[in-house]
Each structure stands twice: as C-alpha cells, then as structure tokens.
Amino acid sequence: MPQDSTPATTTETSAASADSGAAAPGARPWWRDAVIYQVYLRSFADSDGDGIGDLAGLRSRLDYLAGLGVDGLWLNPCYPSPQADHGYDVADYTDVEPAYGDLATLDDLVADAHGRGLRVLMDLVPNHCSSAHPWFREALAAAPGSAERARFIFRPGRGENGELPPNNWPSVFGGPAWTRVPDPDGTPGEWYLHLFDAGQPDFDWRNEQVQQMFDDVLRFWFDRGVDGFRIDVAHGLYKHADLPDWDTAHYNPYAWNQPDVHEVYRRWRRIAASYAPDRELTFVGEIWVPTVTDLARYLRPDELQQAFFFDLLMQPWDAAGFRDSIDRAFTEIGATGAAITWTLANHDVHRAATRYGIVRPETPHESVDLQTRLTRPRGEVDTDLGERRARAAGLLLLALPGTQYLYQGEELGLPEVLDLPDEARQDPTWFRSEHHDPGRDGSRVPLPWTTRSGDFGFSGPAEPTAAPWLPQPDWFAKYAVAEQNDDADSTLSMYRHALRVRREAFSGADETVSWLPVEDRPDVLAFRRGDVTCVVAFGTEAVALPEEWGEVLASSDALEGRRLPGDTAVWLRA
Predict the structure, then answer these.
(1) Strand order, beta sheet including 403-407
(2) pLDDT of residue 383 exceeding 70
(3) Is the pLDDT score of 149 beyond 90?
(4) Is pLDDT at 365 greater than 90 in this prediction?
(5) Mean pLDDT for the stretch of residues 449-456
(6) Cα separation of 455 and 77, whole Å?
C-alpha cells in the first residue's frame, strides 16, 4: 500500500475491543495491551554455576523484569526432557526438568512473580512429545495396531518390504519426517511420524486418550496458578487422515492447518473459562500459516485469545512493507475482536538487530525453506545500523495497540551470534540439514549480566563450575546489563523509558490508529494513537517534525532539534 500523500485526510484502522474472556463487564482482559517478556530459561540466569539457566536464577532476576516495566513472562518449556530440542521434546508434562529445579521452585517463582504484579505463562507442546515419554516407550514395546501405538502416527512403509517411508514428507529440521522402528520380535517394522526431530514423535490427535491427557495437563498447571500458555506448533496437531504425498517445494497443507484443530482450541477455551470469574486465563498460539486470513480463524471468539502476528516479523526494513503488514493485522485480526499479538523476535529467529542490519544478503542453500530465509537471513551485517533500526522498530511496536512479546536480550540490543564454533552448535536443525542451516543457537546464547570474565555474570553470584552451555563472544561485554543500567542512551534505558511512558500515555481502551500523511516521504511512517504520534524514518534522510505534533515523549536515538534522523523513531504528544 503506498504511503498517503494527501494531507486532507488520515486513514484510520482499529482492533475491535470485544472479547469473550473472563473479564468483568466493562473491564478489559489483562492481556489485551500487556507486554510479555519471553524467558528462554536455559539462557536467562544460572543460580548454581553449572552453566545452565534455571528457575532459581530467573526468580533472582524478577526485580529486573519488574523494573523493566513488563506485565508478565512466558517461560519456554521447563518440563523433564532429554533436551534433543532443548525442552520441546517433553518426557513428562506435569513435572519440572531437574536441571532447572522442581515443582516447589516453580510454585515459588509463580508466587513471587504474582507478588510483583507479573503474570506467568508456560509453554505447551501438544504436537509431539519426547521419544523418552512413557507412552512412546510403551508404543515401541507394543505390536502394530495396538492401543499404545494408536496414540501416535505409526504406519507401514512402502516398497516391497516396507523399506520406504509411508509418504515423502520432510522434517522441518531437515531429512525425512519418518523413522522406522523394529517390531517387538526385532524384525524391521513400522515407521512413526516426527515433523521435527526423530526424538519428537507426533501425537495422533484423533485419539481420545491424547485429547484427555492434555485437558488434564492444562488443569494441572492452571490449578498451580499459571496464567496461561503459549502453544507450540498450534497449527499442527492434526494431519490429513490419508497422509498423502506432498510437493516439497511448498507449504504442506496435509501436515498443517487442518480444520479439525479448531475444535481443540474450543475445548481448551472452555477449560480456561471454567476458572472464571476468579481467574483470567489466556492462550497464545505459535501459528505459521500461509495468510493472515488463515491466522484469524484461530482467533474466533470461542478459540484462542491471542496468536503471534509473525507477518510483521518477516518484513525487511521498509516503510511500505511495515505499513502493509500492520494494515493486514488490523483488517484481519482486528475483525475477530482479538488483540493483535506483536513480536519482532523469539528463540526460533535471528535477532532483530541482525536481521535489520544485513547489507549484503547471502543466497541460502536450496534446501532452506522460505520461512527460514525470511526469519533467519544471512549475509554481511552492519551491526551499528541493525541496532539503530531494531531500537526504532521496538519503539514503533510499543506504540501499537495490542499485546507485545519481547524476547530476552532484545531490550539489550543483542545481535545474533553468527559465528558459533561448529562444535558448539546444539540445534537439531544444524545436524539434520547436514550443516546447510546453522540453526537457532545464535539467538539462544546466555545473557550477559555483567562484564565478569568467563560467563558475563550469567551464573550470578555463584562461582561457575562450568562454562555457559553455549559460548558467549567477547563482544557481549558491551551489551551487559551492568554496562547499560546507568547509560541514559543505552537500548536498555530506552526500553525502560518507553515501557513506562507507554503505560502512562496510551489508554488501554484506545485501539484506533490513524495514519498521517508525510508529504513526499514514502520512507517515513507516521500514525496517531489517541493524542500520541509515532513517527519512524526508515531512510537515511532526516525528517522535520511539525510543531503541532507536540513534544517528544520518547525516541529510539537522539533527535537533531525538531528533525528526526534516519533509522529512528519518536513518540510525540500534542
């Protein structure tokens, strides 16, 4: 959509404020304009010096999160797991991974967070479990056609002796999506489906036992005080009953986004609603689908309250692309009555400072799919430029109505660690792609808290007995929390200030955004929300800020009087 050039009118778009959550009449559910901080627990804070982040480490840093100004936190999986995919291979859905703590520690964390006004969301992994899960072990010990195997997707192979996979589906992580197992008598037997790693067998959601187990899992954690769940691979779960072959060059409509999946979320929504009016519980879906229209179907009033709007995350640094994406969100998501759920980064994509700083893109290997090309691009990076643009994008995002998810380290301006030694990489994508896709480890490197040699304070006051589980580069010292705390111009200071101003300046009920024309500047976006104007200069040339737009409330970098430099954002209030 071209930038408006006619000063006579503005273009107004809004997200409807209807919601069928548990809020009292006239009240807004807490999540509609919340800022949620994503905690990749393994890399956030280590309390005992073993090089692995844990619940006690997170608990010790809750004051940091409260001081940052967020409203809650989302915990990546902390269930018992062999760590084939660092927690997304769950061996027990109702316990805590011993390396992270125990149930009592998690209960204390939830209580302490609530005491600081922070909500706690956990991460639910319903598409698949770990190959170490008791159910899958039972399936391997049972015969083909047994009730134990019916909980998963086992099929006989093709070929004269069943030596070929049941279909041609690839794994998201590379290689085939099927693994053959021996029958109980030791002879080659059936194959099981794993859309990710071989250590992550897919459940068969047409099985009532699977459905009931997850009902029980939800109630277990809701009863312990958890405020909601992020749902991993929420567009998965059901596969086409016939498991037909698929053209591997395109999005697989037989593996993803099957219509049956919507009934799961209606069922879960009823479970969450059963805790009302005392509790306001929410779900947020990780949903990768071809169009925003597809995404909106998950947000109908009786399904999920939130779903990540990844469309904006995948846009390059371009004014027209950002505006078109934001318009799509308001048009499609806003029409459902759900809050738009914005994010610029997470543990599966390259950090914003690196994505926006690529100046000479590399052509990826032909095996790398489109989604990966957009979310984990590679090439020559201008780090200073990327950091500047990431700050501007962050300020833009915080001005929009809806829920914001902030990935740990983005508030520090951390770039992606692109040059991890090959021997340090642990992401299954790296191995299953035969090293064509470096994977996601670079966004998961443990956070720098201080400039202390060896671990940058990751192990807190403890004397480290082991190095951090992924190596931290020397240049992490520049981004340490301790280095940014007292620097008024740091990225951390910008986020703290912006989050405080956001709470004060934006009315939670104001979900209307009006685009403002900026004559002859297609590289500039400007919109008004309430009495606050947000302006972002995507180009290199400075833009003059009209006096009638008011005084500066926040900016991503220093202004030049009433001129906004390139790759900078500002909030003003008349």
Answers:
(1) 306-307, 282-285, 228-231, 119-124, 72-75, 35-39, 403-407, 341-343
(2) yes
(3) yes
(4) no
(5) 96
(6) 23
Point out which residues pair with 532 in neighbouring strands: 529, 573
**Cβ atoms 91, 130 nearer than 8 A:** yes
Name the residue among 57, 60, 63, 64 with its Cα closest to residue 78: 57
| Residue 249, C-beta contacts closer than 8 angstroms, at least 6 positions apart | none
Residue type, 343: T
Q: What is the pLDDT of residue 4?
A: 34
Kindly state the tokens that stand for 260: 């049956």
Cis-peptide, bond into residue 277, ω within 30° of zero: yes
Structure tokens at 485: 């705390």
State how beta strands 282-285 and 228-231 pair.
parallel
Which of 107, 178, 99, 185 minimizes the C-alpha distance to 140?
Answer: 185
Contacting residues for 193 by C-beta, under 8 A, at least 6 apart: 152, 153, 154, 155, 166, 169, 177, 178, 201, 202, 239, 243
Number of separate helices (H) and strands (E) present in the chain: 15, 21
pLDDT in tens, 493-530: 999 999 999 999 987 778 889 999 998 899 999 999 99
Give percent above pLDDT 90 in the chain.
Answer: 84
Q: The whole model's pTM is what? A: 0.94
Q: How many residues make up the chain in this entry? A: 574
Q: Residue 25: exposed, middle, or buried by beta-carbon count in 10 A (0-12, 13-18, 19+)? A: exposed
State pLDDT tens for residues 45-67.
999 999 999 999 999 999 999 99
Greatest Cα pair distance, the chain, in angstroms, is 81
Exposed (0-12), middle (13-18) or buried (19+): which is 417, by Cβ within 10 Å? buried
Q: How many CB atoms lie within 10 A of CB 250?
A: 10
Asked if 78 contacts 55 with a C-beta cutoff of 8 angstroms, the reply is yes
Residue of 140, 113, 127 whose CA lies nearest to 224: 113
Residue 122, by phi and psi: left (phi above 0), alpha (psi -120 to 50) or beta? Answer: beta
At residue 9, does pLDDT exceed 70? no
Q: What is the DSSP letter of 156?
A: -
Cβ contacts of 554 within 8 Å, gap of 6 or more: 395, 494, 497, 498, 501, 570, 571
CA 231 to CA 248: how far, in whole Å?
Answer: 26
Distance CA 102, CA 280 (A): 25
pLDDT of 22 > 70? The answer is: no
Q: Is 323 exposed, middle or buried (0-12, 13-18, 19+ CB in 10 A)?
A: buried
Q: What is the DSSP string of 442-463?
A: GG-SPPP-S--TTTTTTTTTS-
272-314 pLDDT per residue, tens: 999 999 999 999 999 999 999 999 999 999 999 999 999 999 9
Nearest Cα neighbor of 68 from 308, 569, 306, 410 is 410
Q: At what angle do helices 383-399 and 491-505 cross, to 10 degrees?
A: 10
Mean pLDDT of the chain: 93
